[in-house]
């Protein structure tokens, strides 16, 4: 009968591999957390500010008036370098985001946006 010989040199290798795996997991979790904090900080930097229509470039106002046909612009917001016209149309509030030249960048349901962020307008 052959004897089973324990090879003690394997245990330290297994422990090193487990430590390395734990280190990789900790690093991945740390990276994910730091990315989410950075993304949240970026989002906070671009918060909307309510502004007067007199602070909105003429090209942006003209583009918003075209989008508002059949409705009315109820407020203006500035987010970073872009402008947003909040339009009341057919019982809904629609946010139309435009650049400083009046180019429409996006449209969204304003009520849903503020419901998600917990804001009241």
Description:
The chain has 121 residues and is of the alpha+beta class. The chain has two domains: 7-45; 49-117, Roll (Nuclear Transport Factor 2, Chain: A). 45% of the residues lie in helices and 26% in strands. It contains three helices and five strands, in the order H-E-H-E-E-E-E-H. The chain has helices at residues 10-45, 58-67, 110-117; strands at 49-51, 72-79, 82-89, 92-98, 104-109. Strands 1-2-3-4-5 form a five-stranded antiparallel beta sheet. The radius of gyration is 28 Å and the shape is elongated.
Name the features.
Nuclear Transport Factor 2, Chain: A, 5 strands, elongated, alpha+beta, single chain
Summarize the structure.
With 121 residues, the protein is α+β, with helices and mostly antiparallel strands. 45% of the residues lie in helices and 26% in strands.
SSE inventory with pairings:
Blueprint: H1 10-45, E1 49-51, H2 58-67, E2 72-79, E3 82-89, E4 92-98, E5 104-109, H3 110-117
Antiparallel strand pairs: 1-2, 2-3, 3-4, 4-5
Distance between the termini: 85 Å
Let me know the average pLDDT.
80
Main pleated sheet = 5 strands, antiparallel
Structural class: alpha+beta
């Amino acid at each position: 009968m052959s004897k089973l010989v324990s090879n003690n040199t394997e245990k330290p290798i297994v422990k090193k591999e487990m430590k390395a795996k734990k280190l990789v997991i900790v690093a991945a979790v740390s990276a994910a957390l730091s990315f989410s904090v950075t993304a949240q900080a970026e989002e906070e930097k671009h918060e909307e500010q309510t502004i007067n229509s007199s602070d909105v470039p003429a090209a942006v106002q003209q583009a918003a008036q075209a989008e508002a046909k059949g409705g009315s612009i109820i407020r203006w917001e500035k987010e970073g370098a872009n402008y947003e016209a909040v339009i009341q149309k057919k019982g809904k509030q629609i946010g139309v985001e435009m650049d400083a030249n009046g180019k429409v960048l996006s449209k969204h349901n304003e009520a849903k946006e503020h419901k998600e962020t917990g804001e009241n307008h």
